[in-house]
Amino acid sequence: MPTVMNSLLSIAGGVLLGIVVSWVVNCTLAEISFNTFFSVYFGILFTAIGGVIVWRIRARAHPISSTMRTVLIGFAILVIASGSLCIFLDTHWFHFRPLFKIPLYSLLGMSVCFAFTFSLMDLLNWLVGACQNNDSIALVESKEQVYLVLGTSIVMGFVFGLIFGIMDVEDKHGWALRNALIHEEHYCLPVGLLIGGIAGYFNSVLRGDGHRQSVQSRQWGMDNNDNL
Q1: pTM score, two decimals?
Q2: pLDDT of res. 11
Q3: Helix, strand, or coil here: 169?
Q4: 107, 161 Cβ separation under 8 angstroms
Q5: pLDDT-flagged residues of the chain (< 50)
Q6: 198: closest CA among 166, 167, 155, 143?
Q7: What is the H or E stretch that residue 64 is in?
Q8: How many alpha carbons fall within 13 Å on the CB side of residue 75?
Q9: Secondary structure tally for the chain: helices H, strands E
Q10: Listed residue (93, 80, 88, 118) closest to 105, CA to CA
Q11: Given 3-state DSSP classes, what are the helix, strand and coil percentages for the chain, each rounded to the nearest 5?
């Protein structure tokens, strides 16, 4: 189990990331809906990010299970498909009834959240690895941690997209749009705070378990070498 200080730092980091993800996802959904340039831009960007994720999965230095590889590639394909979805959710070109609009925004919210979270975790892993010695484990490394990040991003993205679609934020303009986004954040921020904090705590638990197993594995290897 992690120490109290490590747990508090992990929870605080998860809460901060939850807030950032909430704002990024909602602003992205708004820009895709209102701005034709950004809808095309994000469409191309998501396609590129999905391709990079697939490449990163296939080029991982550490072997991963076939199940995890399949899951990650599946979500990367979802991100690529969402690149096309960005065009269809541009309100200048298409209009959908709530029955179709809300599920589409939920799907796009999941893709935005997954792409942003995966990219951010990859960056944080690189930064942590650059600042620590070679024996330190990454911020997110084990398959359990990857599944935790995946599940967290899916749930948060789905909820953010669902709230965005239900509140008809995409139908607002000018100051009404600003007020609608602020009003929506009143519902999304608690979700980001709660899920982010929970994910941060469990990630610290899983990271502590991984560190302990790594130490035990090195100790076992040293003992075997001494016996040879």
Answers
A1: 0.74
A2: 86
A3: helix
A4: yes
A5: 214-225
A6: 155
A7: none
A8: 25
A9: 6, 0
A10: 88
A11: 85, 0, 15
